[in-house]
Write a structure and sequence with these properties.
Blueprint: E1 3-19, E2 31-37, E3 43-49, E4 61-75, E5 90-92, E6 95-101, H1 105-109, H2 126-138, H3 143-154, E7 160-165, E8 169-174, E9 180-184, E10 190-193, E11 198-202, E12 210-214, E13 224-225, E14 230-235, E15 240-244
Antiparallel strand pairs: 1-4, 1-11, 1-12, 2-3, 2-4, 5-6, 6-7, 7-8, 8-14, 9-12, 9-13, 10-11, 14-15
Helix pairs in contact: 2-3
Protein name: Glutamine amidotransferase type-2 domain-containing protein
Pfam family, one: GATase_4
InterPro entries: EgtC-like (IPR026869), GATase_2_dom (IPR017932), Ntn_hydrolases_N (IPR029055)
């Protein structure tokens, strides 16, 4: 199972991100990626492949980010090759998207029309097809309604979870696999370390309120599980809305 992590704050804060070795072979991954927006709302993405079998060949990753919105993904491949181009997040215009699970690529791709069926960043794999299906609908209607229409066909017990960001709103959808959210308001240094090797810290988040979406309960907090078919949306002002699709 891949892992999703999303964070949104009112004001940009610093993040220090690093990826080392997983705690156990069962936590090995095939790729990693992070998407974030700078203060001008420009989207940045950094990502790469990892070897699950030859972990000693994996180089450590370290990056510094200042942002009010980020999404992070650790890939365990279920569709497509293990390669840089198949790692998440994917982008389209100012949107960034990361998926956890497996959806019917052929079923979703049958509905894609130009320009949404061309110039893929991956092979394409099922996750990017899922993303493009949402983008195509979002070109005709509001993102919430676009998501509602696409997930009707994408929902799969093997997982249709995703995080979608546009620099203003963070969208989190759950179907088939666990997904949690919590509100951070702690006057202490923010620092997490996951079994998959991710380390994320911030010196400035101690003075900020943030909403955090995660596939796992990655630190001790009052986590709320999203229901199957639930779409959770957090705006930049940190107002949020939850709807059942």
């Amino acid at each position: 199972m891949a892992r999703l992590l999303g964070i949104i704050t009112r004001q940009p804060v610093d993040f220090s991100l690093s990826i080392g070795q997983p705690q156990h072979i069962t936590y090995s991954t095939h790729g990693w990626g992070v998407a974030w927006y700078d203060q001008s709302r420009k989207l940045h993405i950094q990502k790469g492949r990892r070897s699950a079998l030859n972990q000693h060949l994996n180089q450590s990753v370290q990056t510094q980010i200042v942002t009010h919105q980020l999404i992070f993904h650790m890939r365990q491949a279920t569709s497509g090759d293990v390669s840089d181009k198949n790692t998440h997040p994917f982008s389209y215009q100012h949107y960034a998207f990361a998926h956890n699970g497996s959806v019917n690529k052929e079923k979703l791709s049958a509905h894609l029309k130009p320009p949404f069926n061309a110039n893929f960043q991956s092979e394409p794999i099922d996750s990017e097809i899922y993303f493009r299906a949402i983008m195509q609908k979002a070109s005709e209607m509001e993102p919430q309604e676009a998501i509602k229409q696409v997930v009707k066909e994408a929902n799969n017990p093997r997982g249709a979870n995703f995080l979608l960001a546009d620099g203003q709103t963070l969208y989190a959808y759950r179907f088939g696999l666990p997904l949690y959210w919590t509100r951070w308001r702690e006057e202490r240094h923010f620092s997490i370390q996951t079994p998959m090797g991710l380390k994320l810290s911030s010196t400035q988040l101690s003075s900020q309120v943030a909403y955090i979406i995660s596939s796992d309960k990655i630190f001790s907090a009052n986590w709320t599980a999203l229901d199957d078919g639930e779409l959770f949306m957090i705006r930049k002002n940190l107002n949020y809305e939850s709807v059942k699709l």
